[in-house]
Give the backbone structure.
Amino acid sequence: MTDETATPIFERGDVVYGDDPFKGEDDARPWLILSNHEGRPFHGEQYIALTLTTKSWMDGLIEIPEESWLRGGTPDESRIVPWGVQSIDHEDIDFWQGRVDTELVDEAVAAFVEELQ
């Protein structure tokens, strides 16, 4: 996340908490920001993200080891859902939760791409 005081711009690796289009209008969940490339359309307004879940029984989820959190974290142990992709608008984000390391983000992107093949 940038340090701008007006409107923060979330960056790759940031985990944010925002609207959950899978559940309903009043529900929210954590999201891992995958893409927010400066110079691309909608930079800082729209983000490609993967959802996080506290579920552990599904195959293919990506664990988030404690050491992968560079800052912040989630209140409950969470995992990345590589098939739970969403384009989330900045206005749908309630707050920043933390940041995970590049290696974990790269693993999540690779798993997401594998889901598409």
